[in-house]
Amino acid sequence: MRQETFADMEYSFRKKKTRRGEFLETMDEIIPWDEWIGVIEPYYPKGKRGRPPVGIEKMLRMYLLQIWFNLSDPATEDAIYDSYSMRKFVGIDFMTESVPDETTLCRFRHLLEENGLNELFFDAIDRVMAETGHVMKGGTIVDVAIVNAPRASKNAEKARATEVPPSKKGSAWTVGIKCHIIKKEGDGEKAP
User: Fold this and answer.
1) Residues 6+ apart with CB under 8 A from 167
2) Residue 175 neighbours by CB distance under 10 Å
3) In this structure, how many other beta carbons lie within 10 angstroms of the beta carbon of residue 179?
4) Which helix H or strand E contains 148, and what residues bound it?
């Protein structure tokens, strides 16, 4: 058992758990880590040459964060530095170690892809979620862009047309129409 750090103690006094933190705690509990590590082990470098490899479980956890939160290799590294819940999920203690760099994660991801293990883990995550009664849903991101429109002119009744109300864009008022851009996640993707 590892010793509790000041960051752990400070974090334990938080008033609310984030959804990300709750999700990661749930995934930590339901994933059969030993089984999944055993699947990767035959393909993972043994460290006979060069620097010793990072532990399989740590790399697998980083890879899963990358998939679940749709992060690039550098963004995954940065997110672990920035987020206590992600750092806790991966099992990084800054007193004794640093976050594996983006190149290490890239090599691990390629190792999984070359051996077809990434698809195996996508299927395994779906299976584990179904077995434990958890549901993975896609989300929807809505963005609004203001499309410029001509100023309202007087109509036949000598009144201003009000189909295009003014909108605030930054600090200036403009006449325009809001165009909603919707991106649905989960369409063929494997993400929470």
Assistant:
1) 146, 173, 174, 175, 176, 178
2) 14
3) 10
4) strand 140-148
Spell out the SS3 assignment of 57-107.
Answer: HHHHHHHHHHHHCCCCHHHHHHHHHHCHHHHHHHCCCCCCCCCCCHHHHHH
Q: Which residue has the higher pLDDT, 77 or 174?
A: 77
Q: DSSP letter at 51?
A: S
> Residue 185 carries which DSSP code?
S
Angle at 33 (CA atoms; ends 73, 126), nearest 5 degrees: 75
- Tens of pLDDT, residue by residue over 49-94, are 767 778 899 999 999 998 888 888 899 999 998 888 899 899 888 7
DSSP 3-state assignment of 189?
Answer: coil
The closest alpha carbon to 100, from 47, 66, 55, 39, belongs to 55
State the Cα–Cα distance between residues 93 and 99, nearest whole angstrom: 9
For residue 184, what are the β-bridge partners?
Answer: 140
β-pair partners for 154 = 160
Residue with tokens 């990434």: 118
Cβ neighbour number for residue 116 with a 10 Å cutoff:
8
